[in-house]
Amino acid sequence: MSQKLIMPNQRSILKIVHWLGFAVIIGLYFFVVRPIRVGFISALLDYIEPVLPTLQDVGIRNSATTLILSIGTQEVHSLKEFTYGLSFNSFFLFASLGLWALKNFKNSMLTLIIIHLLGWIIATVFFFAGLYLHPNWWVGSDLITVYLIPMASLSWVAIVYAEQKRIPR
Hints:
Blueprint: H1 3-6, H2 10-48, E1 58-62, E2 66-71, E3 80-85, H3 90-101, H4 105-132, H5 138-166
Helix pairs in contact: 2-3, 3-4, 3-5, 4-5
């Protein structure tokens, strides 16, 4: 029996490591990042529940990682709903997997984390402005968490891909 059949070649080991990287990223997201997000929403909900009775015609519903804030009454049909969701959501997972697939994980992950941290901070400022100043400020947190953070995350992957194609190796 030849030595070549017993020892896997280096290329197959790299492929296995690459696929294991996907599994590790997915595992870290579901077993580390997501529980932190759920804990933060629970703590935030406990913090804001005493403030809600002072606000007129404001309601709140929550899922595990999102708060849905409503202004108005159901009878009048003037109900406005806004979402406050945390950063580091599924778009963070998708972008992380995309950066891993592009083999540019280490160099570009810091920028992705900064995108999500800044989005989280700014959305939280809008959330508290809506809580303590006027509920219409919640539109800012809704815009950031529903549209801007996902767009910025996936755009970052596209930018990294375009840079790789532009720069010859």
